[in-house]
Write a structure and sequence with these properties.
Blueprint lengths: L3 E4 L2 E4 L9 E6 L3 H12 L4 E5 L15 H6 L1 H20 L14 H25 L3 E11 L2 E6 L4 E11 L3 E3 L13 H4 L8 E5 L3 H12 L3 E5 L11 H13 L3 E3 L4 E6 L4 E5 L4 E4 L1 E4 L3 E3 L6 H4 L22 E3 L10 H15 L14 E3 L5 E5 L2 H7 L4 E8 L2 H6 L5 E8 L5 E7 L3 H13 L4 H5 L20 E3 L10
Parallel strand pairs: 3-4, 3-7, 4-5, 7-17, 9-10, 9-15, 10-11
Antiparallel strand pairs: 1-2, 5-6, 6-7, 8-16, 12-13, 13-14, 18-19, 19-22, 20-21, 20-23, 21-22
Helix pairs in contact: 1-9, 3-4, 3-6
Length: about 500
């Protein structure tokens, strides 16, 4: 069966001269983006090979696993721990709902850890079967480029295999980084945090991003003492400032000790535990110090520069809007390109790649109105523009609608924790530019709001939608009064 393949930017029928390639496509990295691209390419008739490092929950340059960061040491195991931590607050809230809960409630960390590991092993197996069922040839080992159309795979026993491919896709993701401070070897990253043998009763977290906030919520929810240190006035830089303040307030309300405008200068191993020294001279003693200070693209051992693939200043693979590198036969998707580092985005990029190169459907990833969530307790979820971004980009005035209320569940439990919702609207066109929510079930609600924004919904259409009562979600269609009107030329001043 003849296949259509993208050659020099145009779709052409394959010819007999291309038969000398071992594969139409060889993918390095079997995470979300790589698996999606390989399966979809195979469904279009391509002969596909893929390689991935051997499985281990904690990654390194020589171990990883099919499923990648999200499945093995990212979104999935983290969400399992979030569920586990959430029960702490649920048990407290249950008392006022008539549940006679003993004062002493024990938490078994090792049991949860075992269940988490069982689940990621199950998913690892499912991903392997997905590849096999799609007809993709899986190689376990480390892959690297040796030419524009050649890949070398080093197997577990050291044997090296070489394969040629019409197209090569790099999908090796990223890896957690440690700060360059004395004693950084005494801290851990998110990899180790998901696989600790003993539950840490005292934790110091360095970082203000979503990983830092999520682990602070997880450990606090399980009963640990948590100190969260971050460089700005509020955590979650890049998110809507008003919603960042809500998250910070909720963290404090649940017992997390916040240290804004604080960095760590040194970590020391002592008999009392791990001592973290801040740039204010404060000494924090912990069982664990977590560095949640960013991730870096996995490009170090791919031999990219020798082949001529261009990298940016972060050593991410530079690609065009079709995910193609400067070498026409080499492509890249996912976190290794450092565009928008979210699992569903890697899936989108992998899908577009397969459609473009093998499906006869030239497709470009669309990065507008991508919803996302921070799985703090309670979670924050957003889609579209923050208020600050809307003001920055606006040609005219911006209307801001907000709602802050005590969720119905809290009125009985007695928990003092408000849910906050927000809509940012273009005053001239009435189009909803952004939506945010911090409160119970925010990600589940925001997924539906994301569809509305993708369709270009207006505030009038939100207002004409009948709400589901009683629910928190109905607030998004009942916010009638403008909280504030902001001129587009009025740039917000913030040092948060």
């Amino acid at each position: 069966m003849a296949r259509k393949i993208l050659i020099d930017g145009e779709l052409s029928q394959t010819n007999e001269e291309e038969a000398h390639y071992d594969f139409d496509l060889f993918v390095i990295g079997a995470g979300s983006g790589g698996v999606r691209a390989s399966r979809f390419s195979a469904s279009y008739g391509a002969k596909v090979g893929i390689c991935e490092l051997p499985f281990h929950p904690i990654s390194s340059e020589t171990i990883g696993g099919v499923g990648g960061t999200c499945v093995i040491r990212g979104c999935v195991p983290k969400k399992i721990l979030v569920y586990g931590a959430s029960f702490g607050g649920e048990i407290e809230d249950a008392r006022n709902y008539g549940w006679e809960v003993n004062e002493r409630v024990d938490f078994n960390w090792k049991k949860l850890l075992h269940k988490k590991t069982e689940e990621i092993l199950r998913l690892n197996g499912i991903y392997k079967r997905l590849l096999t069922n799609a007809g993709v040839k899986l190689f376990e080992g480390e892959g690297k480029l040796v030419g524009p159309n050649e890949v070398e795979v080093t197997q577990l026993d050291g044997t090296k295999l070489s394969y040629s491919a019409k197209h090569i896709l790099i999908a090796t993701g990223s890896r957690a980084q440690r700060p360059d401070i004395p004693g950084q070897e005494f801290g851990i990253t998110s990899d180790e945090a998901l696989s600790l043998e003993e539950f840490p009763k005292r934790v110091v977290v360095l970082g203000g991003g979503y990983i830092a906030v999520e682990f602070a919520s997880i450990w606090r929810g399980m009963g640990a003492t948590v100190d969260l240190c971050f460089r700005k006035e509020l955590p979650l830089r890049g998110f809507d400032d008003e919603m960042r303040a809500v998250v910070a307030r909720n963290l404090e309300g649940r017992g997390v000790n916040l240290h804004p405008r604080t960095n760590l200068t040194e970590v020391i191993k002592t008999e009392e535990g791990v001592k973290a020294i801040t740039d204010h001279g404060e000494e924090l003693i912990a069982d664990v110090v977590l560095f949640a200070t960013g991730r870096a693209p996995n490009t170090k051992r791919l031999n990219l520069e020798a082949v001529g693939v261009e990298l940016d200043s972060t050593r991410a693979v530079k690609v065009d809007e079709n995910s193609r590198t400067n070498i026409p036969s080499i492509w890249a998707v996912g976190d290794v390109t450092n565009r928008l580092n979210l699992t569903p985005v890697a899936l989108m990029e992998g899908t577009c790649f397969a459609k473009t190169v093998f499906g006869g459907q030239p497709s470009k990833p669309d990065y507008r109105d991508i919803p996302c969530a921070v799985f703090s307790i309670p979670p924050l979820s957003v889609v579209g523009l923050s208020e600050e971004q809307a003001i920055e980009q606006a040609n005219g005035d911006i209307l801001v609608f907000t709602s802050s209320f005590n969720p119905m569940k809290n009125t009985i439990s007695g928990r003092q924790e408000k849910a906050v919702m927000k809509l940012v609207v273009d005053a001239e066109t009435d189009r909803v530019l952004g939506a945010s929510m911090c409160g119970p079930d925010a990600p589940e609600i925001m997924q539906g709001i994301g569809v509305a924004l993708k369709c270009g919904a207006t505030k009038a259409q939100f207002d004409s939608t009948v709400g589901i009562h009683p629910s928190a979600a109905e607030e998004f269609v009942t916010m009638r009064s403008v909280t504030r009107r902001v001129a587009g030329s009025k740039k917000p001043k913030t040092s948060l």
